[in-house]
Each structure stands twice: as structure tokens, then as C-alpha cells.
Design a protein that fits this description.
alpha/beta, Nucleotidyltransferase, domain 5, seven-stranded mixed β-sheet, 12 strands, globular
Length: 356
């Protein structure tokens, strides 16, 4: 069993992370960079499939040539497909069609399922898998209701890392994952603040468009009057790009690097201090909303993602929410580990693989 391993693939906007895992943990990992000058040659995300395959295959082959591992599975980060329940999914043709067409959204993670399907045949595997895709949605019916019939509140979240973080805390607190209740805030380039209850994300902001705090480059929730005025004055694609790529810290301060923002604050920049303080305030307010949605019964609040590496941010945030319940920090993200654990739960019969 120790010789058995799975391949994990996680495509990002300008890189692809690959790894080998056995049941004890990571054996090898590599992040392969893809220059923007190369990627811009492709019209759509799905068009990068052959390019990414050819750049990561040598690293997979090289590691295998130096080991005596048996590859028993392959798993990739799932992209934006139709809303589905969380779990480990077999990547079938319907999943591939939706990931390739980008009809539900275009994101680098759409390539995860396409790459897994490509590689599974090369490694002689019957199935390829994904775990808790970006489109995972277990939001409760009450949380979906908006003030306008036909407009549904739904969230695209950092599901992999949020559920993995919840599993870590549940284990530490000796609470069965299916009976646990946590407010999890993933804070990075995108921000997801959600309520993970009974092993499911039952409420979360839409971290890409329209809800929650502003992020390093995304708009977050906005006053409707301003949104309406902007939408009537600019083309749809221009507005979408503004809200999803050119807002937040980037629009206010000219940088989307939170470390740079904090340096500006520490150097006495009053505007940077105002914008940064507003960011902390909005994150805290979203956490408070989720805590209230738990009926004040959440077992803990957990902060994860890249911004959690900042001690200043964590200390500033704790001034708002530290007294609500237990407060935990897990900086960075555990997506690769979460993907590996998901496929092993299926391979070892602990969990049923789902069909898309």
C-alpha cells in the first residue's frame, strides 16, 4: 500500500501545481510557471490543454522514473460547471463538456478535469476524479432567496480549502465533521467567507462577482444605484472585468499585493490606512454575519488563505471577532492535500464516488 500513489493536478491562472501523494501525505510536488506571454496566444482557457499537458508531463515522468510507485488514481481541481453538491466526482463526459465549453464560467480550474481525463489514459487508469469543484453549492434554500424573484443568491467559493480547514479543526476539537459548525474565511486574491455546517458549506458569499468584502482586485458587494449607473454607461464585458479584475485594493491604491498595502499603511499613508481599515471591517462584518447565521453556535472561526500570513491583518481582525468563539489561523491553502484525501476516501471505500 505504501507504494501506491495518486497524481494531483491543480491549474492556476499562470501556473500548474502537480504532486504525488500516498496515504501518509505528499511525496513530491512542483509548481510549473506559464508565462503570460505564452498563455495570451490562446483565445480560451480550454485551448491551453495541450500546452499545459506538454509542460507538466516531463515532471511526472521524471519522478516516476526515479521511484517504484504504482499510480492508482489521478485527481484534479474541478472548474466552474453547473452547481453540484460537494464530494468526490468521477469526471464523465458531461463534466468535460461543461468544463470545456465554459458555459457556466471561464476559470483556469476548468483545465483540471480536462488534464485529468488526458492523463488517465496515459497512466492506464479507468477513471479520473475531482473533489469539491469550484461550483460546489450546498447553500441552504433560505440563504438563496434574494429580494428579486428570479435572482438567486449563490456562491462560488474556495470549497476545497474551506472544507479541508473545517476538517482540520473538527479533528482537533474531536467533533465529527458531519456534526461540526464553523465560520471559515479564505482570504487571498479571491475571498470566500462561509458557514460550514454538517460538513457542507450552507452559506457563502459569491467571491467572484457581487457579494462579500472587496478583495485585492475584486469589487465585492456594491450599492445597487452605482452598479445600475455603471452598467448603463459601459459594455457588459467591460463592467465584468472591472468588478472581477480591476477593483479592490488595485483600483484604490494601484496594487493588489496586500503586503505592499500594509507597507503603505506602516509608512503613514492615510489613504492606504483608510482603504485597508475598510477591508478589515468588511471581512469582520461578513464573518459576523455568518456567525449570526449559525445562531451563534459556530464551534470556531478560522482564517485561511494567503492574507492570513499577515500578523498585522490577523491582529486587526481579531479586535472585531476574537470574542465570538474560538479563533484559529491556518495560513495558506490545502487544496492539493484536500484533492488527494478525497480520491483516497473513494479508493479505500470510505466514500462513494458521485456522478455529475
Amino acid at each position: 500500500m505504501e507504494k501506491e500513489a495518486v497524481i494531483v493536478i491543480n491549474p492556476g491562472s499562470t501556473s500548474t501545481k502537480i504532486a504525488f501523494y500516498n496515504r501518509q501525505g505528499e511525496l513530491f510536488s512542483k509548481s510549473i510557471s506559464h508565462p503570460q506571454s505564452e498563455l495570451c496566444k490562446f483565445e480560451k482557457i480550454a485551448d491551453q490543454l495541450q500546452y499545459r499537458h506538454d509542460h507538466i508531463k516531463p515532471y511526472l515522468d521524471d519522478y516516476l522514473s526515479k521511484s517504484d510507485l504504482k499510480v492508482v488514481g489521478i485527481v484534479g481541481r474541478g472548474g466552474i460547471v453547473k452547481p453540484i453538491n460537494g464530494g468526490t466526482y468521477i469526471i464523465n463526459e458531461a463534466f468535460l463538456v461543461d468544463a470545456r465549453s465554459c458555459q457556466y464560467g471561464e476559470h483556469a480550474s476548468n483545465l483540471g478535469s480536462l488534464l485529468v481525463n488526458y492523463f488517465k489514459d496515459e497512466f492506464g487508469l479507468k477513471e479520473g476524479y475531482t473533489v469539491d469543484p469550484v461550483s460546489t453549492s450546498s447553500i441552504s434554500e433560505i440563504a438563496k432567496i434574494s429580494g428579486v424573484p428570479g435572482i438567486i443568491r449563490d456562491g462560488r467559493a474556495h470549497t476545497l480549502n474551506m472544507k479541508k480547514t473545517a476538517r482540520i479543526i473538527a479533528s482537533k476539537q474531536n467533533i465529527p465533521f458531519e456534526e461540526s459548525c464553523y465560520v471559515i474565511a479564505h482570504l487571498g486574491g479571491g475571498i470566500s467567507v462561509g458557514l460550514v455546517q454538517g460538513g457542507k458549506i450552507v452559506d457563502v458569499n459569491d467571491g467572484l462577482l457581487g457579494m462579500g468584502p472587496f478583495t485585492p482586485n475584486r469589487a465585492g458587494a456594491l450599492p445597487l444605484r452605482g452598479v445600475m449607473k455603471l452598467c448603463y454607461s459601459k459594455p457588459e464585458e467591460e463592467v465584468k472585468k472591472l468588478f472581477s479584475q480591476n477593483s479592490g485594493f488595485k483600483a484604490h491604491l494601484g496594487t493588489e499585493d496586500v503586503r505592499e498595502v500594509i507597507k503603505m499603511v506602516e509608512n503613514g499613508d492615510s489613504k492606504a490606512n483608510l482603504i485597508y481599515s475598510a477591508f478589515v471591517y468588511q471581512v469582520a462584518k461578513e464573518i459576523g454575519a455568518c456567525f449570526a447565521a449559525s445562531k451563534a453556535k459556530a464551534h470556531a472561526i478560522a482564517i485561511t488563505g494567503g492574507i492570513a500570513y499577515s500578523n498585522k491583518f490577523i491582529n486587526d481582525l481579531k479586535e472585531y471577532v476574537d470574542t465570538l468563539t474560538e479563533f484559529h489561523v491556518y495560513a495558506g491553502e490545502n487544496e492539493m492535500e484536500a484533492l488527494a484525501e478525497g480520491i483516497f476516501r473513494v479508493l479505500d471505500g470510505e466514500e462513494e464516488a458521485l456522478e455529475y
